[in-house]
Amino acid sequence: MKLQHLLVCGVFGAFATIAAFAIGAALLATTGIPMIGGLLNAVVVVLILLTGVRIVNRFGAAILINFIFVAVAIPTMVVGPPGPHKILIGLTAGLLIDVIISVFKRRMLGYYIGAILGSAFYPLGVYFILVYTNAPILGKYISILIPFIIWYAICGAVGTYLALYIYKKKLSDLTFIKSIE
User: Fold this and answer.
1) pLDDT in tens, 62-74
2) Any residues with CB less than 8 A from the CB of 111 and at least 6 apart, and which?
3) How large is the C-alpha radius of gyration of the chain?
4) What letter does residue 140 receive in the DSSP assignment?
5) Sign of torsion, CA 21 25 28 31?
6) Residue 93, CA distances (Å) to 32, 38, 71, 83, 98 in order
7) Which residue in 16, 88, 162, 165 has the fewest CB atoms around it within 10 Å?
8) How far apart are the first and last CA of the chain?
9) φ and ψ at 107, to 5 degrees?
10) Is 151 helix (H, G, I), strand (E, B) or coil?
11) DSSP 85
12) pLDDT tens string 68-117
């Protein structure tokens, strides 16, 4: 990857964290319901992350963007409790996305399958961290894990559709974007 690809990954990863934090904080403040932000901002996060992946269009983009997304989120409640354990979740989801997109030779189906599985991995990754740390919330989280996985998979599909639509209709013909590719 070139420097411009790394910069795009950094911007999209950081922007996804900022968006997730802002949406999550606003929803928590207005509803008082923990974890509501993650449920409602997942489409926006996937939209941002997959737009960056599509712009860079290289193996490693999803890994780097997801890494930056979770690294910036370490001190926040975005992607589970604060802490460096989020790095493993982001790297695994990013690798999953990159591998699937590559296996499908960067065809649209690969973006959908990669994003759906990568998105569905996030709540599963949080579950593994909660088990490893023996967190008190583990009992409650187990009862909602399957619905969370299904919801995040759906959000992955919707966010991917929006990202690919925006890329094709609004971004792909921009000179700036063409110079990055």
Assistant:
1) 999 999 999 999 9
2) 50, 53, 54, 101, 104, 160, 163, 164
3) 16
4) H
5) negative
6) 29, 16, 13, 17, 9
7) 165
8) 10
9) -80, 160
10) helix
11) T
12) 999 999 999 888 888 999 999 999 999 999 999 999 999 999 999 999 99
Name the amino acid, one letter, at 35: M
Q: Coil, strand, or helix at residue 59?
A: coil
Burial of 134 (0-12, 13-18, 19+ CB in 10 A): exposed
Tell me, what amino acid is at 109? L
Q: Which amino acid makes up residue 92?
A: T
Cβ–Cβ under 8 Å, residues 35 and 48 = no
Side chain identity, residue 66: N
> Per the structure block, which two tokens stand in for 142?
């187990």
Q: What's the one-letter identity of residue 169?
A: K
Q: What is the pTM of this model?
A: 0.91
The first and second tokens of residue 11, run together, are: 């911007």
* Spacing of C-alpha 22 from chain mean position: 15
